[in-house]
Amino acid sequence: MKVCIPSAKSGGLEDLVGQHFGMVPVYTVLDTETDDVQIVENTSQHNGGVGLPPELLSNAGVDIMLCGGLGTKAVNMFSEFGIEVFVGAQGTVEAAISEWKEGNLASPNSENVCQGHDHDHNHQH
To answer: PANTHER family attached here (predicted)?
Structure first.
């Protein structure tokens, strides 16, 4: 199973979780069966490339996305690609994976997803 975390840099498991999944420069992908770590550059249209992050990550074989938060539209797109999402990730990539393994990250719902861009919160849109 491949678990993906939006990352602030290319530091792998020691990097910090990027808090805006679509705008991060890279995604850290951990294969939980082999412990291999892959860095996937964010070449989506959010960073001047093509396509959207869910498509990019689907092509990388990702099964699970762990992030700080995201909007309903993104949750639906990940679902269309068969990628399960968990929110509330913070700290290092390694810490976020541990929190997920311990069942401490939540599935997105109406209480914990961004509903639009007209609200005040701590990440950039």
So the answer is: DINITROGENASE IRON-MOLYBDENUM COFACTOR PROTEIN-RELATED, IRON-MOLYBDENUM PROTEIN
CATH number at residue 28: 3.30.420.130
Q: Please tell me what DSSP assigns to residue 53.
A: H
* Alpha carbons 53 and 64: distance in angstroms, whole number: 13
How many domains is the chain built from? 1
> CA torsion angle for 45, 87, 81, 33 (degrees, to 10)?
110
pLDDT in tens, the chain (125 residues): 999 999 999 889 999 999 888 889 999 999 999 999 999 999 988 778 888 999 999 999 999 999 998 888 889 999 999 999 999 999 999 999 999 999 999 998 877 776 554 444 444 44
59 Rama class: left (phi>0) / alpha (psi -120 to 50) / beta: alpha
Residue 104 identity: N
Q: Which domain holds residue 27?
A: 2-102
**Radius of gyration, alpha carbons of the chain:** 13
Q: Is residue 115 part of a domain?
A: no
